[in-house]
Design goal:
This protein is an alpha+beta fold. The chain is 43% helix and 20% strand. Strands 10-17-12-13-14 form a 5-stranded antiparallel beta sheet, with no helix packed on it. Strands 5-6-7-8 form a 4-stranded antiparallel beta sheet. A 3-stranded antiparallel beta sheet has the order 9-18-19. Helix 4 packs antiparallel against helix 6. The longest helix is centred in the N-terminal third of the chain and has 59 residues.
Length: 676
């Protein structure tokens, strides 16, 4: 009986040594395999037996091949890795943004603006010069190219980010499905270390896309949650991420009975939360707005919470570039009623019922992450760089271009060139030519004030034949009524009309010519009459084709009180050149700020540079943290070739020793058999 036990022990030892050698060999073969977890054979002593009154062991068995993995370290690593993935993504784009706005004395938007304004100074020194006008238009074209090319690069960058978000959300959903499938396979084969390693690697890859929390259960199943607690994988069940366009949701008070609908148009990098501060019907109830989930509320120019009236489409309000109105309500809004407007594409978690929960990354004015929104992973990084930097910078560039256009045009539209006009056409059209100018849809309608502009007519010899002042009241006058005023004042010499594009046209009759003067209303600049630039953004700014066709219509001087344009008149050129050091209003509404155009551009450049530098520092910090935990996990689960070679030698020796046990026992058997 004891010899049989010895033989059994030897056989077990041989089998154990063989399996251990195979395991060590597999470790060596997978030393460079990403995500591979080093495995060890786990030995357990077999039960004892009683021989001649003595308790004798029966050898050892390998009860498992166990992967080396520290779940606590991995939790720390996943958190650090998600942060690193987000910061790296942001830095990659911010570095590009910084390159786009790289400024020097001879290059960049600031330089081209200086050259453009200096060209007006040169014209003021020789206001009748065609050469100076030619040079001025050339500098204008250079400035325009600088603006439009920069805007195009920013838009292309934004489009690339959107495309990356789409691809990464799709990749995340594939990983979610893959992890669920691996969970199912592991449930059927709980000791399959290859499946477990594959699942842990898939979790790491998912975490790089969207930060996750992992909970492991005793049955080997793994549950995956977003950082904000929404389940992505529960056993073999999954919940998908959804990338979708603009959306609004409501969160009414329990006692609210409002039955109307909210409508909005436009887009914004901001997610707008509105909350009613009073109870009342449409047209009476007021609400406030927040861009950080209700952490802070938008303020007016006096530092007070800005309130908006909940009106219909005709009385809509604009918040962060989004036009908001209410319709169809037969009951009152209730104080505390909330609506969230996401006038942009966003990230959502889909529940089992198909409802969507908004988890789009959001930061407050300090750049801190808002709770209940995902913040880790490259998807979050893409949303942050889009919403916190690319789109706002593009908006600022448009504000800059809009202010430049308006300030130049408001001076130029009141001036005179070296040749009188025989026909002019506005470059800005109205949506409704019968509506008041304030409600006409003009791009610069808000700039029109009550006032007037002058018109002078001349005969074929250049002599003044008539003049009149056309009064403007933006609250009552329409473009049609202004055309009528001109026709009445200059019957037989000028005709004014509104074309099919909603643009004002003024034409002379016979040999009559005309000039504009002293516009205190801003009407001429707002309608694009006698202006230098067309457009209203960095994308569509252009030199007026009327000027491009005839440089004599570059206005340097003004019409005098006697109706003549004296040689050497240069007040318009000087006024535009003075924009170099003059503070102007840039932006809209309560968000407008007063600064020179140069100061505003310098602020954009500084803002982008600071963001890129901060992101670079953040990457360094996040890299250090992620590498620390990766190294700790590697020390636990990684394959050390030297150690495995030592193990192979040990297992080889065990195998040889086990064979010796078999050999000795066999000889003993033969001896016993010989005696018998």
């Amino acid at each position: 009986m004891s010899l049989t036990n010895a033989m059994s022990i030897g056989q077990k030892a041989i089998n154990n040594a063989q399996l251990s050698i195979e395991n060590a060999s597999n470790n060596i073969a997978n030393a460079e395999t990403e995500g591979y977890q080093r495995t060890d054979t786990v030995y357990d002593s077999s039960c004892n037996i009683n021989i001649s009154g003595n308790s004798i062991g029966t050898g050892a068995n390998i009860i498992a091949v166990q992967a080396n993995w520290d779940s606590f370290i991995e939790k720390q690593y996943l958190s650090a890795s998600a942060d690193l993935s987000s910061s790296e993504t942001q830095y990659d784009y911010l570095a590009q943004l910084d390159t786009i706005f790289n400024q020097s004395e001879d290059e960049g938007l600031a330089s081209t603006l200086d050259e453009f304004l200096s060209a007006w100074n040169e014209l003021s020194s020789d206001p009748d010069s065609l050469a100076e006008r030619t040079s001025l238009v050339s500098e204008a074209e250079t400035l325009i190219y600088s603006l439009t090319s920069t805007a195009t690069e920013l838009q292309e960058m934004s489009d690339t980010v959107e495309s990356e978000i789409v691809d990464q959300v799709a990749a995340a959903n594939e990983l979610i499905d893959s992890i669920a499938l691996l969970n199912k396979q592991i449930a059927a084969d709980s000791e399959n270390t290859e499946l477990i390693s594959s699942r842990d690697q898939a979790i790491r890859e998912l975490d790089e896309l969207i930060g996750v929390e992992v909970i492991s259960s005793s049955d080997g199943q793994t549950k995956i949650y977003t950082e904000t607690g929404q389940p992505l994988v529960e056993g073999s069940e999954t919940h998908s991420l959804v990338y979708r366009g603009s959306k609004s949701t409501e969160s009414l008070q329990p006692g609210s009975s409002y039955d109307g609908e909210i409508s909005y148009s436009g887009s914004s990098s901001e997610e707008i939360l509105i909350e009613f501060v009073s109870t009342g019907a449409d047209g009476t109830a007021q609400f406030k707005a927040s861009f950080d989930g209700g952490k802070t509320w938008k303020q007016d120019e006096n530092g007070n919470t800005q309130l908006y009236l909940a009106g219909d489409k005709d009385s809509s309000v604009t918040v962060a570039g989004v036009e908001i109105s209410f319709s169809g309500g037969t009951t009152d809004h209730t104080k505390g009623d909330r609506y969230t407007i996401v006038a942009k594409s966003g990230l959502y978690w889909e529940s089992s019922s198909g409802s969507l929960v908004n988890i789009t990354p959001m930061t407050d004015s300090s750049g801190d992450n808002i709770s209940n929104r995902t913040s880790g992973g490259s998807i979050a990084g893409l949303f942050k760089v889009r919403d916190d930097y690319i789109e706002p910078v593009l908006d600022e560039l448009d504000d800059y271009a809009s202010a430049l256009i308006w300030e130049v045009n408001s001076e130029h539209s009141q001036g005179a060139g070296t040749e009188h006009h025989s026909a002019v056409k506005g470059t800005y059209g109205v949506e409704d030519q019968t509506a008041s100018l304030a409600d006409s849809g003009l791009v610069y309608a808000d700039e029109i004030e009550s006032g007037s502009f002058g018109l002078y007519t001349y005969d074929a010899d250049g002599n003044v034949t008539s003049n009149a002042s056309i009064s403007i009241d933006p609250s009552t006058d329409s473009l049609d009524s202004i055309a009528t005023k001109i026709n009445t004042a200059f019957s037989g010499s000028l005709t004014a009309s509104v074309n099919s594009d909603g643009e004002l046209e003024i034409q002379s009759v016979s040999d009559t010519t005309f000039e504009f003067a002293d516009d205190t209303s801003g009407f001429l600049a707002a309608t694009g009459i006698n202006t230098f630039f067309t457009g209203s953004t960095a994308t569509d700014i252009s030199v007026n084709s009327y000027i491009e066709e005839d440089f004599s219509h570059v206005n340097a001087g003004v019409v005098g009180s006697d109706g003549t344009v004296s040689s050497g008149s240069n007040s318009v050129a000087e006024a535009i050149n003075d924009l170099t050091g003059s503070s102007v209003s840039i932006g809209e509404g309560s968000s407008a700020q007063s600064a020179t155009l140069t100061e505003f551009m310098a602020a954009i450049v500084s803002e982008v540079g600071a963001a890129a530098s901060k992101a670079d520092t953040q990457v360094a910090c996040d890299t250090a943290a992620a590498e620390l935990y990766a190294e700790q996990q590697e020390s636990v689960s990684g394959v050390n070739i030297d150690e495995e070679l030592i193990n192979l030698t040990i297992y080889q020796q065990r195998y040889q020793a086990a064979c010796q046990i078999i050999s000795v026992t066999q000889e003993m058997f033969e001896t016993v058999l010989g005696i018998m």
